[in-house]
Sequence to fold (299 residues):
Amino acid sequence: MSYNPSRDDTSRFTARRPAFITNMFWDDNHDAEEEIEAAAAAYWAVVTSNMLQARQARNERRHKHRLYLIREELLPNPHVGTPWQRLWQSQSNRAFITTMGFDVATFRRLLEGPGMFGERWDMSSIPRNDVGRASAPRTDRRSLDGAGALGLILHYLGSAMLEVTLQQVFALTPTTLNRYLEFAEEILYETLSVMKEARITMPHRVEDLNRLSELIQERHPLLEGAVASIDGLSLVSQTSDDPKIENATFNGWKTSHCINNVLVFSPEGVSCISLSHSSTNSYLIVPRCCYRCSAQFPW
Fold:
C-alpha cells in the first residue's frame, strides 16, 4: 500500500531538512549567476571591441578620400610669411595675372573704394551658426584681411587647384577655408553687381552698334552688319575625390572635367553675353542676339 504524505507531513520533512543541503542549493545558484554575469561581460566586451574596430576601419577608409591639412601641418600664422603674403607684397602684374587672371590695377579696383570688396569684407560678419548676421564684425580675429580674401576667391575661381593647395597658399584650416570661400564669393558677387565695368549686356543704342560694325569692317571689309563674335570656352572645374560621385558627374568625353561656356564678344573686347553651354541654351543664343540687334539695328 503506497504512502502519500499530506501537506503537513511535507512541511515537517522540509523543516527537518539538514542545513548543508540548503547551503548546497544556494551555492549552486550563486555560482550559476556569477557564470551568467561573466558570460554577459565577456559578450559585451567582444561587442564593444568589434564596434571600435569597425569604427577605426571606417575612419581609415574615409581618410583615404579626405585630402586636407590640419593646423600642425600648415604655417603657424596666416598673416606672416605665407605664399600669398609674398605674392601680395610683390605687386607684380605678371604674378597677379598668372595666379588670379587680373593685373594689380584691376585687383585694386575690385578691392579699394566705397562699396568695393575690401569695405564689404570689413563691414560684414562672416555667417556662423553661433554668430548672428547682424553682429559686429571682428576683423582683428580673422585669418585674412580684405586683400587676402579677394586673392583667395580669385585663386579658387581662376584655377582648378584643390582646396588642399589653397590651404598651403593661405595657411587656412579646412573649416576656415570653406567658410571664407563661401563668404568671399557672396561679397564678390555683390561688388561686381554695382560695377558698371562688370556688366554683361548687349549695346542698346544704334550709334553703339554702328560703331562696332565699323570697327569690324575696318579689319574685315566683307563682313557687313556684324557687331560681335561668338565663341566657346571650356573651363576646367574641380572634381570630387569620391570615385562614385566623379563617375556620376563625368561622361568621359574629354580627358578633364570642364564646364563649357558660350561667350559673345564685341570688337572692343567687352563680353556681351555669357552662358553655360547646354542643349537648351544652344537654341537660345543666336535668336537672342538677333532679336536684341534687330530691334534697334535693322539692316
Q: What stands out?
A: The first strand starts at residue 229 and ends at 236.
